[in-house]
Known about the structure:
With 268 residues, chain A is an alpha/beta fold.
Amino acid sequence: MIVVKAGGNGGIDIEAVCADIAELVQQGESVVLVHGGSHETNVISEKLGHPPRFVTSVSGHVSRYTDRQTLEIFAMVTAGRINKLLVERLQQLGVNALGLSGLDGRLLEGKRKGTLRIVENGKRKVLRGDYSGKIERVNVGLLNTLLEAGYVPVVAPLAVSQQGEALNVDGDRVAAAIGTALKAEKVIILSNVPGLLRHFPDESTLISYIPREQVEDHLDRYAQGRMKKKLLGAVEALRDGVKQVVIADGRVAQPLRRALAGQGTVIQ
Amino acid sequence: MIVVKAGGNGGIDIEAVCADIAELVQQGESVVLVHGGSHETNVISEKLGHPPRFVTSVSGHVSRYTDRQTLEIFAMVTAGRINKLLVERLQQLGVNALGLSGLDGRLLEGKRKGTLRIVENGKRKVLRGDYSGKIERVNVGLLNTLLEAGYVPVVAPLAVSQQGEALNVDGDRVAAAIGTALKAEKVIILSNVPGLLRHFPDESTLISYIPREQVEDHLDRYAQGRMKKKLLGAVEALRDGVKQVVIADGRVAQPLRRALAGQGTVIQ
Lengths: 268, 268
């Protein structure tokens, strides 16, 4: 069982990812593909006259403010565009892909943040009406039902709250949560860098191996921006039963084969 | 087993439809919800700077010209927006809804038209690059797997061609095809009129009953525009095992309960 995170955030060679997935599936491997959608959501939000808004939390993290309108655009772009284009490409390669969001069949249950504590112009503010969340439960039964019936699940990063609200969740964390729930052997997170870099953006400073007990230390010392979420996902996945997480380059030919061969940052 | 077509084309009280579905599901009824998306696709296509194009076929039918860009917008709006908002609403009402498009797991296989023969300014033309199609096969196994596991499938009107291309298909025909495949007792098609009208748009001229052998005759004499597709769907469904098709008003309170009580145009 391999869980792959790829797509939706620009720079990744989706064609090559899908070709590798087709090869893996043909070899009898079980695969779940998880994708993101931040970049395309920004593009379409601009076009629809509702530009994205990013805020800085009190603890210094930059994140999207997901008001209801943004949530609906995010759902439309991730579950309707990115997800269906991936499913279509995989179908063309003979893979019986089946796209879902975390809302469908309560695949991913999450806790809504609701309120963001942010810093704006040096002042602390409380921002209400946010529709992002943190995953709390994966409906493993649904994934297993689909996998046993021969489908390759392709998952869009939405979750459903206890109250049934759709939530925007982070794709890297979705991959980690699904990897954990399925007790996957490997979780591979493809990115537009070769892995964790000691001196970002110098790609010659790739850290090729991190022992699992040192991930949090590396996170504090080297990870910037979205790489932090990838490492946080890795910490969670390894703690809860995944054997190996690889953060690897998604811009190259055979990106999955390379990642499976240990190219990238291997965390174990 | 009841297959319901509602939503995506304006005028229908989706809130009331979802409430009725929740009631039916609670009573132990198996339900599949199919939706459309023409109206919202038009709105978002305009906003994205790719306005819809409608063409008149040689036989006089008006239809959307679905070029590749339109197909991608149609997929985004139907599978990502309408579908997920319906799933969210049903989840809030305690229904474990699961949204799919016909592309997912090859739920709906179709034949691509590709070429449209149209009449424009009095001249016959051939228009290539169309991505609409006609449903040829329903993956009943997938629907049964989901229904048996307790999910309520919510289906967006896309199909997949033999070659794995996504296709725009008509929602009314999707409902008819799924009704047939599942040998549903009833197929209910909700619309923004009370049913088939003898003198459109005079709602006092509702035809409340059509014996199945007279549907084609009624189609030729009374049906206009999209009502033709609803009746064509009814003909196919009744021919292939569905017991009853009701074309009913989706603008009213308790729209499904009323339709199940025989309000609308009952075809049997």
